[in-house]
Amino acid sequence: MTQLAPPTTSPETTGTARTAAAATAPATIDVAWLGEYLLGAWAEERKHSRELIKRPELHRIDGLGMADHRERVLGQLGLLVDWGVVHRAFPKSVGGEDNHGGNIASFEELVLADASLQIKSGVQWGLFGAAVMHLGTEKHHTGLLPDIMSLKVPGAFAMTETGHGSDVAAVGTTATYDEATGEFVIHTPFRAAWKDYLGNAALHGTAAVVFAQLITKGVNHGVHAFYVPIRDENGFLPGVGGEDDGIKGGLNGIDNGRLHFDQVRIPRDNLLNRYGDVAEDGTYSSVIGSPGRRFFTMLGTLVQGRVSLDGSAVVASKLALTIAITYATQRRQFTAASDDEVVLLDYQRHQRRLLPRLAQTYAMSFAHETFLNAFDGVFSGAHDTDADRQDLETIAAALKPLSTWAALDILQESRESCGGAGFLAQNRFTQLRADLDIYTTFEGDNNVLLQLVAKRLLGDYAAKFKNADAATLARYVAGSVGATAVSRSGLRQLSQSIVDFGSTARSVGYVRDEASQRQLLTDRVQSMVAALAGRLRAASKLGPVAAADLFNANQDELIEAARAHGELLQWESFTAALESMPAATRQVMTWVRDLFGLGLIEKHAAWYLINGRLSAHRAQAITDYIDDRLLPRLRPHALDLVNAFGFEPEHLRAEIASGAEQARQDEAAVYYADLRASGNAPVEEKALKAKKR
Amino acid sequence: MTQLAPPTTSPETTGTARTAAAATAPATIDVAWLGEYLLGAWAEERKHSRELIKRPELHRIDGLGMADHRERVLGQLGLLVDWGVVHRAFPKSVGGEDNHGGNIASFEELVLADASLQIKSGVQWGLFGAAVMHLGTEKHHTGLLPDIMSLKVPGAFAMTETGHGSDVAAVGTTATYDEATGEFVIHTPFRAAWKDYLGNAALHGTAAVVFAQLITKGVNHGVHAFYVPIRDENGFLPGVGGEDDGIKGGLNGIDNGRLHFDQVRIPRDNLLNRYGDVAEDGTYSSVIGSPGRRFFTMLGTLVQGRVSLDGSAVVASKLALTIAITYATQRRQFTAASDDEVVLLDYQRHQRRLLPRLAQTYAMSFAHETFLNAFDGVFSGAHDTDADRQDLETIAAALKPLSTWAALDILQESRESCGGAGFLAQNRFTQLRADLDIYTTFEGDNNVLLQLVAKRLLGDYAAKFKNADAATLARYVAGSVGATAVSRSGLRQLSQSIVDFGSTARSVGYVRDEASQRQLLTDRVQSMVAALAGRLRAASKLGPVAAADLFNANQDELIEAARAHGELLQWESFTAALESMPAATRQVMTWVRDLFGLGLIEKHAAWYLINGRLSAHRAQAITDYIDDRLLPRLRPHALDLVNAFGFEPEHLRAEIASGAEQARQDEAAVYYADLRASGNAPVEEKALKAKKR
After folding, report:
1. Are residues B539 and B513 in the same domain?
2. Separation in Å, CA A425 to CA A655, B434, B436, B625
3. Gyration radius of chain B's alpha carbons
4. B424 interaction partners in chain A (CB closer than 8 Å)
5. What is the tens place of the pLDDT at every residue in A242-252?
6. B57 located within any domain
7. Are residues A508 and A623 in contact, defined by beta-carbon separation less than 8 angstroms?
8. B residues 556-585 near A, CB within 8 Å?
């Protein structure tokens, strides 16, 4: 855990950081304790995965061509099978462990090896295999899962089409039941209905789970999943065709491609029939009566993709900040008060660039742990009511967008903070950023997901206030309703009544404390939702065009409300995580939490000011508090905070985080010291001129 | 110009956009006129460059390995030589045209072909060649430039070292004059002093302009440039060594690498001696007495790198938005009020994502034209005073950061707005983004550049108020000083006195007009600078450590003030550009300018609220005005606005902007219409259930 750690505060540290270090000496982080704590409920699975990731045969090789990269990653999947680490999530009946949380935890770490390896595993076992597991029944488990688990059958998850990504319910592919033969006929009626962007489709897949409109007896029962063989050793099977998606912005170790079907016949048994079935005579039946609910239930079983992308974004952010902050504590540039050059992280701007993002990463990490526990609760059956599933989906839709966007931002700021060195592939940022780019739009487009969250918040609000009068609504907005209006999706109700933040002259101490942060963050979500609900109420009295226009005219704010909700979830998780920390660690981590919470309030200061929740004086005080107190206080702990992420050199694999920069600085310093001591150092022209005067 | 243009408002346009279109029918853009206007003062050079760029041999090939890509780009440079388009900036005496603006304009367009081609040309002729031209004298021009221009001598620009990027004055490489032999000895004293990240250094360069500390007679005269042969057909010359930088985040068609020198001897004549010379006996002389001013004068001659990166960022942003907005007007997803799916750009969120970035791109484009004219003025000698050069450098330091950051943001938002299709290399975004990433930190790190701007603003402020009392300062902050305090660097002084924006109840009409936008934007820059000056005043009374700490404690705000200044420059350029537009075009373009200006004010609303420049009511009104008026108004003109950028299919080279998406939509629509007409369409289960009830 300490292999990379120079002393927490180097003796050369100048200026602000030195002052702050003196003021805050007692607070220290127990790095080993925090590191273990961060690994969470499935620490063993994570550690095991990190041990495997040390093996060079799993590491990404920069500059490998697409074809070689694809073959390498396929081979890596084979290694994972050989090492027996892909079975965790599958049923015990077929040799699995029914360990859903542990499976995702170990999977998330794979991003440290190569994001292509991670996502190709995700395609094979998390999408293709998971669809068979969750949407299929016993016959599919027994008949299909063993070959999927062993990689004997690599497969594609054929949901998205060129023409329909976010709106899966509208895919064009059809699966029409033919009573005469007892077969489904899979068909692609037009170009936009080609399945697209599918991992394993361009080269390696021999089967696919195909999502298609199930039509029997002249009725379309909506989208269902079908197991369809697509290739054998001679290439595509009759009626199946496709294309290679070619080079992508990243993840080029995965063979994404397109598939289309020309009246391809499959046995009736190939319908994955857990939620909908067709009898031999063509009669449709389902355990879920409502077609809409059935569709969302089927999709809901695939939430693990969003869980794991959220967790992977956290891991990648931790890696980026470990590299950037390690470098920032060794790299020097420009002199200020003395002849010694200043360490980058002693510059206020550099702190402003990296430390709030470090706080955000901690918040994301704690929120992800909450999320992963909720996921495991549902899929282990421990907490698996309809409400639990809906809550899980809402958490997923709120957190995955925030963390995947944040990861790109953190990777980019980290890269820029290392200058030209940050641009070299050998220092990891650029390749990881290229790979993670797509995380923002796959497994649910981030904007579309946030809109789902907003609809949920509005729905909860409407359910609560179905028959409420204006006065009740006003009281709710003012925060005086004590109930759990939107709490199911994780929103904690305020216990205090809202006070007028703007009217008093109390110091920043007021907004700094935990209760005030909670109040400000919670109030913003509630008020935005209430205001939107008020505006959208009129929709019920409008015609469909006008109602759609009204909704659309509020779309941007809906999405912002959902974002605020997600930020609150992160803040609450961080705050809850503080409780069990040892005192000295908790002290520092509370500053980190404050930097996150006050950073959110600062980011949304305009809202707080416009809505009278903060006075101008207090809004300014928050910025000053961050700049003058929190950043200098946290500066001496920055290395401990990244070292707690627990990466070893085989995970970092970045030259600038290897100690090489410190060695170069030391060598140069010795050279100049020796030169001065020798008496042979040239005189500076400037100094000479000053002397002459 | 119109080859890609479907009708401005498609008949299917629904909802908001339809309403807005009806309301604003009279305002139309003269696309041909605007397109020509955007090409600016060097339209012919740009057009010529764009014609060349149509040739497939200049186009980037995605997925080419690094080695092949480097060879291809070297070959492309040879084509540019053959076609006679690299000579423009060089002196007429050696066959050039002394056409500085035209050279940069044509160069900027090259990003459309391949950014590697652009930057490798920039290394060869804009850095290596330009250093010989601007820092050398007649003997160097005659002796060296012809082979540089013809690419007979590919060369590296060896300024940056592994240990010093932003702080060039502190490079470690030495050039010590040996009176005995009349030679300079070029030497790398330690690892951190290796030259690094140099294009042409890994493979192709046979010479380099090396920046080193000039030492003669025991005095270090600071950094000077030396022409140093480094390779012949057998590889590195004796004493020279190096390394390949390997794979980078982008620009992999360029052979970046490292160089180091072990007591390498070069003739005295190889000192590029325009600003500093050494006589045979070792006596140093310079036309510029102050070593500091001499250094900055030398660096200042190389400002063209920043000019061209600013322009390239504009071209890339235009390309990205042309692709994303074209797609957004054809792509449909989800239904709202009818069975027809909604066109993406009719969603408010999609408008919010793309249209403000389109406005920003126009602002960047007009600001760049101002910048390019200033550059040409200085380098043509038409406006070449010290003040002109300082202004040019300040404009460069303000605009290059804003536009290069914006380009990354615009490329990313464009990519995400196209979903999975946006991630495919064939649709351009991801590869361009990878290449342009480094534009934010090379040719001056963006944060460091903005700090230079802030220092200039503070310097101008201090010069103006050297002996001012507190009352005068207060009047200045209140805007009642009519003079040109900081106007040299482009800041326009307010002619109106500041009114209390917060105290009246006038409508959004107030902040909407041009004068109010100017006042708000200008006031912010002035007030931030004045406040910083006030706080930093104390530094003169402090010791060096405390003074450095004080400066550092304000660093973040200094950089924000510089950013505000850059944004104002963009806004002023946009506003000035409106003047000569035909009325109908000007009407639409004024909305675009308003979207840019009000967008800036919205972004900084917290500052305006905290500092009492906007009331809460007005701040909210600005957001509402953008959402409810400007976006719907501009929606019908979005395609015209990107078509005015004038790209042809050979420039776009993006499948999703080729009309393919429209063809797919049409085909699917026809399929469903035919199916309905045939009477064979399956019934929806949901519809069936509704009927039964």
Report:
1. yes
2. 10, 11, 15, 45
3. 28
4. 245-249
5. 999 999 999 99
6. no
7. no
8. 556, 559
